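Entry: Cytochrome b5
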Amino acid sequence: MLKKAISPVIASLLLSACSLNPISELTPTPTSTISPSLDQEATPFKEPENSTQAYTMEEVVTHDSADSCWLVIQGQVYDVTSFVSNHPGGEAILEGCGQDATVLFNTRPMGSGTPHSDGARITLETYLIGTLE
């Protein structure tokens, strides 16, 4: 008898729950938005200041050690000092410090003898400091 009395109550609750619009009635309405005011200007993208810096080969050759390692690759100057200890090829990177390392980078004569991977080239770009005069 108790089961028969509870069933209509449960059915009634289920029907009224199904009539709710779960998206509009259960989703909170935001009270504020995150957007700049109309009088604020967006900060424009800024190129790295040193990406257009020009260096002479005389300056590059002074950075020829693990303590300060600059490489020239295809006319671009890279400061890879902070990468030397993480270089997957170990100390092979030191062979290029302070000089034009284009051939070394493209042929890896102390390693596999193949060009560096696309991933290595992308990583290299993060160390770009300028161009060779």
